Amino acid sequence: MPPFIYINGYPGVGKLTVAKELKCVSVLLRPSEKRFKSTNTSAPGSESKLLPKAKTFSNHLLIDPAAAVFDRTAEVLTSIATAKSTRDVTWIFTDQQSSSNLGSSSARDYQNAAGVRGSPFISIVLHCELEENLTRATGGDRGKGSNTKLTDLDILRSIREREDIFRFQDEYELELDVTQLTPSEAAAAIRDHVDIKGFKHEFVSHLNRGPSDREVRILCWLVSRPRHHGGVLFLPVGDSTGTIQVVVESSKVPCWFELKILKPESSLMVHGSLAFRHDATFDIVARGVSIISKATGMLHSDIRHAGPSILGSQNTDVLLSHRHLYLRNPLILALNLYRSQCFSAVHEWFKAHQFVEISAPLITPSILYEPSSAIHISNLKTTKPLFLSQCAGFYLEAAAHAHERVYNLGPSFRNESRTNRHLMEYWHIKAELCSGGMNDIMDLVEIFLHDIFKAQAEDALTNHFGGPVWLMHKPRCLEPFPYRVYPDDEELTMTADLISSGGFGEICGVAEKSFTREDIELRLKRKGKAEIRDVYGWVLQSRDFGMVPHTAFGMGFERVLRWFCGVGHVKDMIPFPRIFGRDPTP
């Protein structure tokens, strides 16, 4: 449902100007624009509506009652809210209401009308510095339109001295200082706020903060079958943040009988008030319930079933075949949320340590491992064999000699065996540095894990046995050709794997990279790749232009998450897993 937007502020701050910009405004701003000089701020051909199907009402009742667009009464607002012809319209009201009893009551009439309509209510408070306010009050075309405008600066000063603008003081209210903003910039800021806040009024997790009797509105899904007792219906509903019970009386909600037979996962918009329960939680006592979409199907395994057993082998097929639905399961939702938070933390860590993110290609002729473990691309018109990337390493080492510290967090693809540690498509944390040796890169990995995963990593990494351990100097025959040979034993390499505790296996590999052409050519020959050395011509050429000793680490993102979450299979740490030997569905 489109929102009600209520713009409040002192006379002359530009409420109506900004409201008009919300209806039809330039997306491209002229660099020379600095102040509220004109409502026509568009470059030629660049106009577009920020809020399509919006209607603007400017009410100046306090200044000139005869000039008001409509009388400010709850009845009139309610009639506007219930008009069927404008159900798809975003209403933008501009007003000046103070924090007095009369002002707050009048402002809440708008909020109540939004409730009647079932729309989100978004309060915007515009303000600017006094001198700028005085300048705007007497500038431009102000006062020349059909509505009377306040242009008396003494009155404006008096209003600002004796009145405070009313604020709803909820978490969805936007206070916007427009002193240095153009109308288009202010409108764009409001549009962004509406996009983020306006179409989902509250989350369930916010509701248990109370207080009792507070008016609330939530978008939610029915999480299990409704229960009823006489003329009272109990709806267990939830969203991404939790669950709550909605109490619906048959005399108050017209669609009561439809709600009674709804299937789980039907979507609803609920409007009501919070009621405190004896167990220190809250119910929503419904004033209105709208059925957005009815669920028509049922799965034999409950989508919202709580507890770790949902990840058991008995549910594997239904969970993978209907992954698009089971993302709603509380445990899977929590794992994906944890993944998202760790994803952000990885990027933040690298940025904080002066690493530059490099976007490496996913289609490549130059694979790190053997072709048998690569996924071939066969339908492209090319003379070279192409593969999905197994590793971004070749591209990162080239970028490292431009930026010195680089990283990539992106997908890699392996045609590997089906185990609880392997995916065909997984996300890979890769980093390369133009400095240091193997001990340095091992230390960096431990710092990285500690910083990202905090207490869990600290407990694990401080235990030498029983915790993760480094397996150093892996055999040359097992490692790819770009890695340096161990000086004390040519059958070994300057590599190490971090083996996790609890049987979760390898989670990270580190290496010193060969940096001379001679070393790379020798390793290619010993790996039996001499005949295809042209595929790696650009890798060899990089060694002709001042390549320096450099180190790298690579880490399977899902493996690390699986280790810390204690989950049995790596497939449960990615939203849509791709597993060897199973058709990708969905």
TrEMBL record:
<keyword id="KW-0030">Aminoacyl-tRNA synthetase</keyword>
<keyword id="KW-0067">ATP-binding</keyword>
<dbReference type="Pfam" id="PF01336">
    <property type="entry name" value="tRNA_anti-codon"/>
</dbReference>
<dbReference type="GO" id="GO:0005524">
    <property type="term" value="F:ATP binding"/>
</dbReference>
<keyword id="KW-0547">Nucleotide-binding</keyword>
<dbReference type="InterPro" id="IPR006195">
    <property type="entry name" value="aa-tRNA-synth_II"/>
</dbReference>
<dbReference type="InterPro" id="IPR045864">
    <property type="entry name" value="aa-tRNA-synth_II/BPL/LPL"/>
</dbReference>
<dbReference type="InterPro" id="IPR004365">
    <property type="entry name" value="NA-bd_OB_tRNA"/>
</dbReference>
<dbReference type="InterPro" id="IPR004364">
    <property type="entry name" value="Aa-tRNA-synt_II"/>
</dbReference>
<dbReference type="GO" id="GO:0032991">
    <property type="term" value="C:protein-containing complex"/>
</dbReference>
<keyword id="KW-0436">Ligase</keyword>
<dbReference type="Pfam" id="PF00152">
    <property type="entry name" value="tRNA-synt_2"/>
</dbReference>
<dbReference type="InterPro" id="IPR012340">
    <property type="entry name" value="NA-bd_OB-fold"/>
</dbReference>
<dbReference type="GO" id="GO:0004812">
    <property type="term" value="F:aminoacyl-tRNA ligase activity"/>
</dbReference>
<dbReference type="GO" id="GO:0006421">
    <property type="term" value="P:asparaginyl-tRNA aminoacylation"/>
</dbReference>
<keyword id="KW-0648">Protein biosynthesis</keyword>
<feature type="domain" description="Aminoacyl-transfer RNA synthetases class-II family profile">
    <location>
        <begin position="344"/>
        <end position="575"/>
    </location>
</feature>
<dbReference type="InterPro" id="IPR027417">
    <property type="entry name" value="P-loop_NTPase"/>
</dbReference>
<dbReference type="GO" id="GO:0003676">
    <property type="term" value="F:nucleic acid binding"/>
</dbReference>
<protein>
    <recommendedName>
        <fullName>Aminoacyl-transfer RNA synthetases class-II family profile domain-containing protein</fullName>
    </recommendedName>
</protein>
